[in-house]
Write a structure and sequence with these properties.
- It is a single chain.
- By secondary structure, the chain is an alpha/beta fold.
- It has one domain: Spore Coat Polysaccharide Biosynthesis Protein SpsA, Chain A (Alpha-Beta Complex).
- The strands form 2 sheets. The protein has a 4-stranded mixed sheet, with helices on both faces. Strands 2-3 form a two-stranded antiparallel ribbon.
- The longest helix is centred in the C-terminal third of the chain and has 16 residues.
- It is globular.
- The two termini are about 15 Å apart.
């Protein structure tokens, strides 16, 4: 059973700027709750007990909202300071680093 989920939550969200101006896109409100909460609720219902959130743009908003846990799951953060580089290479490097450091 998979118990750890990596969620990429660090993009600039340029296509959503008109809707979500001062928030990172995973924190866009849907029915009064951040979209990221819905994702995490789903994964918790599937048995996930640990989240690894790769955050970048406005990362403090996500970190301040969730802290070190969400419901029954723990949260580790990987802060990407270079979130403006080309998407594919940034994601590839970030995931490799997370997998290596977390020994997954």
């Amino acid at each position: 059973m998979v118990t750890t989920a990596i969620i990429l939550a660090g993009g600039l969200g340029t296509r959503l700027k008109k809707v979500v101006q001062d928030l990172p896109k995973p924190m866009a409100l849907i029915r009064g709750r951040p979209f990221l909460e819905y994702q995490m609720d789903f994964w918790i219902s599937q048995g996930v007990t640990k989240f690894i959130l790769s955050v970048g743009y406005l990362n403090h908003i996500i970190i301040d909202h969730f802290g070190d846990s969400y419901h029954t799951a723990s949260i580790n953060y990987y802060v990407e300071d270079e979130y403006e580089v080309e998407f594919d290479s940034n994601v590839s490097i970030g995931i490799r680093r997370i997998l290596y450091e977390e020994k997954l």
